[in-house]
Amino acid sequence: MFLIETDDLKEKIDQVKIIDCSWHMPQTKRNGLEEYKENHIPNAIFFDLEKNSNQNSNLPHMLTDKNSWEIIVSEMGINNNDDIVVYDNSDVLSACRCWYNFIYFGHNPSLIRILNGGMKKWKSENKTTTNAVSIIKKTQYYPNEKFNLVKNKKQINQNLTLQNFIVIDARSKDRFEGKVQEPRHGLRSGSIPKSFCIPFEKLINNNNTFKDKDEIKKIFKEVLKDTTSSDVVFSCGSGITACVLALAYCLINAKYMPIIYDGSWAEYGKI
Prior knowledge:
alpha/beta
């Protein structure tokens, strides 16, 4: 439901709205927008993850407000009933964060999908790319926030006692266990008490596709007794790779809608 294969996108490339949400970790010294200008899937619109996050927060990639989202998506020429495909050219599968944003702001989940394998697989199959920028006709988009799909620090702390949901962290084991220093300045090492760790890379094949459902279920069963539960919240460093886990969990649990601790360790780990 939440994935589309490269061959399927090629067939319906003129029937969907395509979004390039390439974002890279700062240490890679790569620029998603510059790469988009040089080479992207035909008809793709660039989604700037930094610019389209909350500009008034001192935390990275926080969800923006409803009014800002309305402007952002309207200026992208997207309507509420549009079929959307999101992809990226990133090692952290940043397209999943864009996917989550659309679902949080009320886009029909059946109309927003991730290109399985992203630009890496598309190019490996010698499918067409371009540097031509699409002409966008502004629309009027109407967001509908789903507040139940996000958790804040207060709710995370309350849950330490209440245990109403399980928190799963997408960072590496070494970061989760506090064995290495956090890449972001001003954060202590470690993790949220009583949380679990599934490094997002465990769910991804070498060509950036998601592993098959049986493998994904096996991985989640290592920390979840019940993979039909909807009481699962995902976290990471700054809210990007948490969405990779959320999408993977949606693939094996049809009733689940992605729930993210938006501040993630960038907030919880502040010194």
